[in-house]
Amino acid sequence: MANPVVHFEINSQNAARMREFYSGLFGWEMSEMPEMSYTMVMPGTDPGINGGIGQVDNPDEAWATFYVEVDDPQRYLDEAVAKGGTVVSPVMEIPGVVTTAVFADPDGHRIGLVKSAPPQ
Fold this sequence. Notes:
Helices cover 18% and strands 43% of the residues.
């Protein structure tokens, strides 16, 4: 079974401008989380995926990426490196919320990994 894209992120030095741009362009709903300098984005369509817009200070941190759901982020991170990618963010677990990692492909595009939820 293929691994689905489950989330996207857009990081910008002007997150307010990005919120206005994407909500105006596509009609996406936004839910700001000021304590995290982050905004959840809900396109409100099916099919479709939710995402986020983050505020960053450094222009090198301004990027857009998507997250792929995998069963073992470390295994996929290791495989990405073996195929010529580089680690951007190692596996990080936010207990009870999410486990993520980010790598750059050989061209430098950032791709996120999200650990799939255990079956219920």
